[in-house]
Design goal:
Keywords: Amino-acid transport, ATP-binding, Cell membrane, Membrane, Nucleotide-binding, Transport. Its main location: membrane. It is found in: Cell membrane. The chain is of the alpha/beta class. 38% of the residues lie in helices and 25% in strands. The chain contains nine helices and ten strands. The chain has helices at 40-47, 72-76, 94-106, 110-123, 139-151, 169-184, 196-202, 220-225, 230-239; strands at 2-11, 14-24, 29-33, 55-60, 63-64, 79-82, 157-161, 188-192, 205-210, 213-218. A six-stranded mixed beta sheet has the order 6-7-8-3-9-10, with helices on both faces. A four-stranded antiparallel beta sheet has the order 2-1-4-5, covered by helices on one side. Helix 6 links the parallel strand 7 and strand 8. Helix 3 runs parallel beside helix 5. The two termini are 35 Å apart. The mean pLDDT is 95.
Length: 241
Amino acid sequence: MIRVKQLSKSFGSNTVLRDIDLEVMPKEVVVLIGASGSGKSTLLRCLNALETAEKGEIWIEETPLLAKDTNIPKLRMEMGMVFQQFNLFPHMKVIDNITLAPIRVRGWTPEQARAKGMELLRKVGLETKADAYPASLSGGQSQRVAIARALAMEPKIMLFDEPTSALDPEMVGEVLAVMKTLAKEGMTMIVVTHEMGFAREVGDRIIFLDQGVLLEQGTPEEVFGNPRNERTKEFLSKVLA
């Protein structure tokens, strides 16, 4: 579903991704781990064309993302992305935040979009908040609305960029529970996270990045139970302590 070959990305003289090779299969949950600044979020942003790589190839299904004639907005319709910050429109009700893109981009009627929006709010446990404004929501509720908003476009792939990093500890679980449900339902997911318990439980494959280099990948049992790379061992000894 996603193929990345020899991908490199720099900001000025700082190279943040170095010759990344990666494949993600349909219905697979791939979790990216590593220290802050290792290139995880940049890789995710390159996959959604929010950043442009200087070198390499990215294929989303059969579409070459970096080709000059690729329709990026159309391709983005197939990829939902959830960020660290919720980015909800504060002047719009929850349901309107969710229905805006399907109406304007997908061309759905307001009735179709609202029906889908309510279905997704039930899915994330927030049906009663449909007519609330974002300011009245907790951080965990806001992030669940952001997930519902991304799902409203019916994407084939979901990208999560540290979706729980801005949350209070007691709110992390409610967001991870929604993500676990998506994984069980077969959604293709790439997740950047520092939640090692989630990575171990839900990830089909764990990828460890360090200083822009893909150092190690494998199943959760392989990476967490018997890491081969010394840098991976050092990282895990700190985050799992």
